[in-house]
Amino acid sequence: MRRMVGRRSKTTIERPNRTVGVFTLALVLLLAWPPRPDAGPLVVDLIVQYEQLPVGDELERIAALGGVVRYQYEHLPMLALTVPVVALPLLAAGLDIDVISLDETVESFSLAARATANEPEPGSPG
Fold first, then answer.
1. How many CB atoms lie within 10 A of CB 81?
2. 101 lies in a domain?
3. Structural domain count of the chain
4. pLDDT, tens digit, for every residue of 6-52?
5. 22 inside domain
6. How confident is the model at residue 3 (pLDDT cuts 50, 70, 90)?
7. First to last CA, the chain
8. How far is it, in rounded angstroms, from Cα 55 to Cα 42?
């Protein structure tokens, strides 16, 4: 296993306990976003990091799971995906997958840190 430098998000899944992590992530997502009766399948935006650059077979596998590649990085072994939550365990079963994490908005400060520093909220007049 690779040594991880820095901190990972709480929603990150790493290889040793990947199965437990995938089911935990799926459960959290299902509880956080209850589907509306008129909604289609519940989907989630992910960043999937691979050991090597993903090739055609992996892209076909993602499409077969109902996923959509939102962005394919040219020089980094990772993809930005939208996949159905029910497909998470099958997605995580990929052999070259290193880390799966939620594709979340990156902010410079947390809301608590922003309040402590008396900084305005993003988009506010000042």
1. 23
2. yes
3. 1
4. 444 445 545 555 555 665 666 666 555 555 555 567 888 999 999 99
5. yes
6. very low
7. 46
8. 26
- Tell whether 93 is covered by a domain: yes
Place of tokens 């007049």: 125
Whether the Cβ atoms of residue 91 and residue 65 lie closer than 8 Å to each other: yes
68-82 pLDDT, tens digit per residue, is: 999 999 899 999 999
**Residue 80: phi, psi to the nearest 5?**
-100, 120
Q: Which residue has the tokens 């365990």?
A: 89
Residue 4 in domain: no
Q: Which domain holds residue 67?
A: 13-116
Q: What is d(CA 109, CA 98) in angstroms, rounded to the nearest whole number?
A: 27
Neighbours of 58 (CB within 10 A): 19
Decide: 60 and 14 in contact? Cβ < 8 Å.
no
